[in-house]
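Working notes for the structural subgroup meeting. M.R. asked for a predicted model of this chain before we commit to crystallization trials. I am recording the input and output together here so anyone reviewing the notebook later can reproduce the run.

Input as submitted:
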Amino acid sequence: MSDNLQQYAHVPLKQLSNRVWRTYQGGALIDNWKKTSPEIDNSMPEEWIMSTITARGKDRPENEGLSLIETPDGTLPLKQLIDSNKELYLGKALADKYGTTGVLIKMLDSVERLTVQVHPDKEYAKTVFNSEFGKTESWYVLNTREIDGEKPVVYMGFKEHVTKEEWRTHFENQNIQGLLDCLHKIEVKAGDAFMIYGGVPHAIGSGCFLMEVQEPTDYTMRVEKTTPNNLKIGPELIHQGVGEEKMLECFHYDNYSLEQALNAWKITPEVIESSNEFTLKTLFNEKHTNCFGLNELLLDGKHTIKGNSSFYAAVIYSGDGVMHCNGKDYDYTQGDEIFISAAIPEITFSSKSPSKILLCYPPN
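Returned structure, recorded in token form:
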């Protein structure tokens, strides 16, 4: 079977829908993007893309979060395909260093504010979780909506006055407004992009539909014990089993003015290449992190993407067309999530209608 699975490294692989339960409500804009009905907000507000990890949480379904690929050999986890020949699927450098994709991609749609939280940096993750990966992440805002008249916002970074002692007091008293008042509140719109490094406190507000490219873990430390929708959060989702004191050490207690916060974390996309048929932009790259990358291809014609000795994922945000790969044509359409292995030397996208294609890359 292992030898047979290696044939799929030479074709673009489309993922089946992969919705994941979270502690907050949302998801209607994912339904809208996927052109599925009804468009509803519920407890499955995230779509995990090209995932080889499972979601954390007590009493959750086995293997929740693992991406599935439909093949002539049946529906198989992407992880199983990769494990059949890591070098072929991932590329030699990534296979040798990590033996896994090294990245996790999500589509996330919030109808309520997410809890105030933080993710570990690499040092904390290595020391506390014995993990090669922390959870530095990026946000690319794709769409927004007003919820109950509230404009969409995000929260990030400690304001200039905040101390560790003040933060601890608000946490111990569960003074939620006090916690929020410690963070910068930033109104967002489609096209905004942010880096959220490990250790930086943050929360996504209601009405945000975004792509999140991140390190491949599900480590989240939360300081709210009840969500804005009054869901009680168990200890394992508050501190991941390490205890409240160790959880508070995950935060970086650096202070920022609003201008400093925006300079540190808000990213301006840059055009790499353009013609009358396409524009290729970079959002997140080695200037911001060596953990992952994200480009955006705006296509009204043809464009060929050359392989770079590692895999990548193409997420079709809008439009439809054809992918030409190894002498064959494959359709693509809005909502498709496509794994393109390191074994594919190049792939040509030809649009039938103007397309926005998000190209997600693993660590350098």
